[in-house]
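[stage:ingest] chain + small molecule (diaminopropanoic acid)
[stage:ingest] validated
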Amino acid sequence: APAKRLSDYRPYPFTLETVRLDFTLDPDATEVRAGLSFSPRQEAAALELDGEDLELVSVAVDGRALTPDDYELSKTGLTIPANALPSQPFTLETVTRIAPSKNTALEGLYMSNGMYCTQCEAEGFRKITFYPDRPDVMARFHVTITGDQPVLLANGDLVESRDGYAEWVDPWPKPAYLFALVAGDLRAHSGTFTTMSGREVATNIWVRPGDEDRCDFALQALHRSMRWDEEAYGREYDLDIFNIVAVDDFNMGAMENKGLNIFNSKWVLASPETATDADYERIEGIIAHEYFHNWTGNRITCRDWFQLCLKEGLTVYRDQQFTGDMRGHATKRIDDVLALRGRQFREDRGPLSHPPRPDHYREINNFYTATVYEKGAEIVGMLHRLLGHEGYRAALDLYFERHDGQACTIEDWLKVFEDSSGRDLSQFKRWYTDAGTPTLRVRDSFKDGTYTLEFEQETRPTPGQSEKLPRHIPIEVGLLSENGDEVVPSTVLEMTEAKQSFTFDGLATRPVPSILRDFSAPVRLERDADTSELAFLLTHDRDPFNRWEAGRALAQKVLIGRVLGQETDASFSDAIGALLRDETADPAFRALCLNLPSEDSIAQALYDQGETPDPAAIYAAREGLARDLATAHKTLLAEIFTSSEATGPYSSDPEQAGPRALRLAVLRLLNRIDGGARAGALFASAENMTESLGALAALVQTGQDAAAMAEFRDRWQGDRLVMDKWFLVQLANCPPEMALERAKALTGDPLFTWKTPNRFRALMAGLSGNHAGFHRADGASYRFYADWLLKLDPVNPQVAARMSTAFETWTRYDEGRREKMRSELERIAAQPGLSRDLSEMTQRLLG
Ligand code: DPP
Ligand code: ZN
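[stage:predict] done
[stage:export] tokens:
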């Protein structure tokens, strides 16, 4: 298939007012009757409808049956020429048949454990019925479901229901990708929410029988999200009912279908025994994310899929703000930047680099990326920083007022910021249209009381974009005096040139700069700070992000020095000692400082410096540093481990989760030198999954996990979500030489149900997450991984394509590894019948 291009966009020649859908459910032959009322917007246009894997039973226009001579039916759709259509508004009626039980790709209507459910974003609706499956066609849906399942759900409000029948009406016009239907034997955990104007909304979390007692956290998180969106953005919910359904087989995290969110059960179900603190935080964040889409995504949607970051970037930004408000902004920002660098910077540095708003694609499913989501959120954050709180709020108010009910573009979005602030954002727009992470080099000087910061920005060429123009970069800066006082408080410098200097006058002594506070722009900062300056910032910076960042930079310096066999000093170890003694510092923050940079991020840092990363050397350096830190601070660490034990009933709140995170970070260090004694004891006594899994991960790290692993499996084999953790942890954390053998053995485990996306991802991400194990010099892990992608592709192309990103860093490594990865990619690309999804990915990966 040829690429689709943004420049080819044309409005749909018809408006679609109402949609009537009648479903008669059957696993092998579900009948879908559709009644679509169209009005022509231009003369003599043919009606083109998308449709894939559908059996067409009949077509009629205004009650008159068409014969096959009247239309064209292809593998991708149905076209009715203008001469077979009235020039006035008309109703098209089709009857189609589909087989949900055979739908393993999990797009459209499919079955999971006997329950019917749908996933229509981005282009799944065309597997349900013939339809203009594009987001700028918005219509009101009226849906009936006939089926013998006890619970029958669709979007909107329930208008009629009796045994085996339900009727749902959604008053809000929406694109087809937000359609949803669920039918099954489900139980509800229910509540009510009273909106800001006093309307009562029924809220339900629907799950399989037996899971009801793991829903309350999600329900409360939903209520918190609904309240927060009213308070922070003035957005009220707009239906009488809000349903969330948990499903085990799901390609993504969750989906924001209007009034009927469908979630991967992993991001709904939580109990202290089965979910970790991190899971609780993620669940709350994803519930919020999908809920926030009700306004940013549903009421205002995207004109076309090139604009995906319009809804995703903004909604991620909103869920980040929410989690910050709920759990603390400093640690949330650090977590988000870790994720951004780990996934988006990595993506941006390799062959898959693309702009947040791409201008062409072959398969849109391949663009649900860290760049669209996380970098998209960073761009919204920069707009917020440039305009200030009031300016941002004014722009968002205008966005909702001007565009409610519309399908919009990035241009529309930027225009509301321009109109409400009077600023020109044409240069800023490059953040959306240009790929690549800018490098920001900084030099400083001090003379006669004037301090000068000189910045230089540069963005490397990316696929299809060789010329890069300067970006508009907000750089938040503060200056500290040598005793740690802030002599110039945080201020936002706006860089717009390739090279630009900023001066600060009237300073008594040379200040220490704190640059890019709160990570004010998604750039790679290059500064030759010496270790004493970093240690100083780690102790004194007011900006918690930059405090952490200084410690991070120190750790990175030591690790890179070790990998390259250079002399390193003790300043990182000393700084860690000081931090461990600092009881005023937030435990969660201290935990984040104790976690060493990942092997992958060390590899990336080496690559950025022009070195070729050696995975085995990186592993050895990181292990060595961890052991040395443990040895140097043995007593202090042991004290913290003992004193930070939580008391009282479990809660996932930061007050408990923070100390728990610190305790586990300490355990991971001590475990390297105590022969697994503490981890073994904690594993035996743990009463919650955070500690149980944390102890297990520590044991795995040193390969002392056989007994614990068997015990864990015995205990949890009936629990699919916990077993996913079991598959993942023993691969991602084990010594690299064990990883591939373990992975091979695990694929023979009867619990390795590889067609279930969560299980497939757990095993494969476990292996690819084991940096040195995946990048074995003999290439055997590459081969194994590629074999499994090829096996999954015909079953579930979307997941296979997404998992192929394990190879996105192939250009980083030495020639031997590069060649081996390349030949696996070529082998995949040459596979006959490869899906469009995986074929586009391998072609882009190969460049
Ligand atoms: N639109 C979904 C989300 O990001 C993904 N399919 O919430
Ligand atoms: Zn989203």
